[in-house]
Amino acid sequence: MKVDKIRGLDKEELERQLSGIEEQLFRFHFQKSMGQMDGLKKARANRKDRARIYTVLRERELQAGAKK
Q1: How confident is the model over 4-40, as pLDDT tens digits?
Q2: Pairwise CA distance, residues 68 & 49, whole Å
Q3: CB 58 within 8 A of CB 14
Q4: Gap between the Cα atoms of 32 and 47, Å rounded
Q5: DSSP, residue by residue, 6-68
Q6: 24: number of CA atoms within 13 Å, CB side?
Q7: Which of 21, 25, 34, 44 is most exposed by smallest CB count within 10 Å?
Q8: What is the pTM of this model?
Q9: CA distance 12 to 1
Q10: Which CATH architecture best describes the domain 3-67?
């Protein structure tokens, strides 16, 4: 997911996306421990998307704090 698309989403949608990514990463971790890991690139992309979402959420939090 691109940063521009992430920035266009509201907070609730970002949190929904984040919970979906967390669930997928949990499944990937479980599959890896069982030796059935196939989508290593997808897991890496999910980790990067998760970091991007956390970054955008933190930027918004800091902007809201600066306005007070």
Answers
A1: 999 999 999 999 999 999 999 999 988 888 888 777 8
A2: 29
A3: no
A4: 15
A5: HHTS-HHHHHHHHHHHHHHHHHHHHHHHHT----HHHHHHHHHHHHHHHHHHHHHHHHHHHH-
A6: 18
A7: 34
A8: 0.85
A9: 17
A10: Orthogonal Bundle (1.10)
Written as six digits, the tokens of 58 are: 């933190």
Give the integer Cα–Cα distance in Å for 53 and 39.
21
Q: What angle do the packed helices 11-34 and 40-67 form, to 10 degrees?
A: 150
- Give the start-to-end residue ranges of the domains of the chain: 3-67
| Residue 12: alpha-carbon gap to chain centroid | 13
Six-digit token string for 27:
């499944």
